[in-house]
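Page 47, continued from p. 46.
Same chain as before, 562 aa.
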Amino acid sequence: MNIDNYTFEEFKDYAAQFHGYPAPGLLIGGYMVAMAKKALPEGVLFEAVVETKKCLPDAVQLLTLCSVGNNWMKVINLGRYALSLFDKYTGEGYRVYVDVAKLAPYPEISSWFLKQKAKKDQDTEQLLKEIKTAGDTICSIAPIRIIPNLLGHSHMGTIGICPQCKEAFPQEDGVLCRGCQGEAPYTYLCNDTDRILPQTKILKAEDAIGKKALHDMTQIVPGKEKGPLFVAGQTLEAGDVCRLQQIGRFSVAVEDNNPNGFIHENDGVKAFAKRMSGNNITFELPPKEGKINFSATTRGLLCVDKKRLEAFNMLEDVMCATRQDATIVEAGSQIGGTRVIPLYIADHIFAEALQRLSTPLFSVAPFRKARVGILVTGTEVFKGLITDKFIPIISKKVEQYECTVVKTEIAPDDKNHIQQSIQAIKEAGADLLITTGGLSVDPEDLTRHALTEAGLTDALYGAPVLPGTMSLVGRILSENINTHPTQTKADVSTIRQPQNGEMQVIGVPACALYYKTTLFDILLSRLLAGRIITRHELASMGEGGFCMNCKICTWPKCFFVK
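Result:
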């Protein structure tokens, strides 16, 4: 049986030239490709999906125009010996696979395919003979339609230069190329002993009298004290020798000329601190023990550029650690620290580190003292059949942020009435609307629909957080305002506070009546800080989004949604 336009022997030689030897899988693959091509309408432009990395992709490349290089062939390694050829525009085509049920007449193929024999025990001559005899009769074919995300070709997008390796890469991969993020399949043939280290002047403690200490020297009293006993630049005196020896310093590094090509830890960390700190962040100088800590100057939401922080920490000899993004911080509380790890940092590493700090790593967005409107929906509450408990709960939560409740409304399950209540809250000057109830899939729950008709935009409904999954967040715009978010150079996140007549919206599900902390608490702090909430941010809350419902709630000091 021929393989496409080749005799079996011709294709066997062709395969050997391309593959190195006539692999059985490649020969069977030839029959599979020919079978799929024959089933396609004549003249159709087709592409391929192959479900194994072994041999079969080579058969596709030998008998079609499809290859990995031109992106007409995609290899999705499902571990199955199968391929699909399909119309590149409609996705309709055929899948061909080796059908195990059809292998019984061919014992050598069967034992090879199912790996029942070691390679040394295989009868290669008989195996090739059976493949030639069987042809495509050991295969089955079925019509298929390829899933939409495999149709068409995505464009590479913007190309940037990786700040670490200086090579070009798609910027959608992040601040660094994927190789420098740790995915490189190789290591360079060098090790730490190949690094050029600066020469420092080391003297015995008794010989260092009158010299200046090159770096801070720490004293630790377990459980009581840890801090510099001697600081960089301090002149050592005769009385210091004993104290140095008591902390294990029998030799001391002293100031000399800075080695060429290196930056002292204190000089390096000061330069980093200036670039890392954004709005409402401060730090103290001089560095202590080669380290600088950062503090918030106001109460607010800590915003961390996690990608840029990770890129900075990918560099050797430097580090920065912060509290978690979106943490509520108080004025004066520490939020992170940075240091140069060795005593000296090489010039080229220092330069790369500064390049990665082209924008701040963290800032604090202060909380707005919002004017809050609370809307409770539900006919049973409106008619007084049950007493409302939402308004006091929500009021207490917002007052903790020094917000003012300017209007409360209770509306029945009627869209028109709900819209009128929304308008009344808006006219009262509210810039934050908190609505409760009517957010589930119950047909009588009309709150979402009424909000939409009242002008709700940028709405996000549902999040992977328990409790609070059926929460809603969005905004209702006023007329003739600038809808574009703003971001100052010293803001890490895009901050946008409501403008005149605009209202942020949070929809709170009924679970907030029972649980002390829900997704509402997470969203409230972000909105009061003016942070724009995205679907990506909500999706990322799945990790850590399961509340343990502790008897004594310690949030936000616990792990729940950090």
